[in-house]
Structure formats: structure tokens, C-alpha cells
Amino acid sequence: MQPMLKIDGRKTPRSRVRIDSTVRHLNQEVDARVLDISRAGLSLEFYGRLHAAHGSTVQINNDRFGLIEGTVRWCRNGRLGVQLRENSNTLAKMTAYFRNFHREVRPVLSR
Questions:
Q1: In the chain, what are the domains?
Q2: CA 71 to centroid of chain Cα atoms
Q3: What pLDDT was estimated at residue 11?
């Protein structure tokens, strides 16, 4: 058996964050936390249940970048990966977030 290769197929680098958000899919709405983010996508951890399948459209709303839409790329164990819609509104919001608000989350304890 071969060892696991550490291959990351992401197009853009991800930054670790902790942003409380609300996620909406059809008539469902659930509280969640954004765990990591890039200019192209993000991953979420849910505080409740959301029934969104691969390819579904979801809306993410929070105080940092407002309301954005994306497409579900993966879902497992209460977490969701979302590819953001590539439109000028989303691009402007993400650019403003990284320019004005983003600070890399670092561990509290260090040696």
C-alpha cells in the first residue's frame, strides 16, 4: 500500500478563519461557521442540519462580506465545501474582505 500523497488540487490558497454565518438553501436556514476561505471558495461547519446535495446553490450571509452565493462541491460530517459564484459582485466582496478585514488565524498557544 502506498503512503498518502499530500496533493492539494486547489487553484487558490486557503486561509483559516472563524466567521459566524447563516446558510440558506431553498426554504432551510441554518447557523454555520466559515472555517477556511479563498477568493474562489470556502468551507463551512454547521451548527444544525442542512440538506444540500452536490451541485445545489446556497447563500451565505455574515457581517464580514455580506450575502454571497455559491455551489456545493462536497458535503460530509456536518461540513460543506462551496465554490463561489464567479460574478463581479462576489469578486468585489471577496477582494474587499481580503484587503480590509482578513487576519490569518493563528494558534493561541505557541512554543
A1: 15-100 (2.40.10.220)
A2: 11
A3: 65
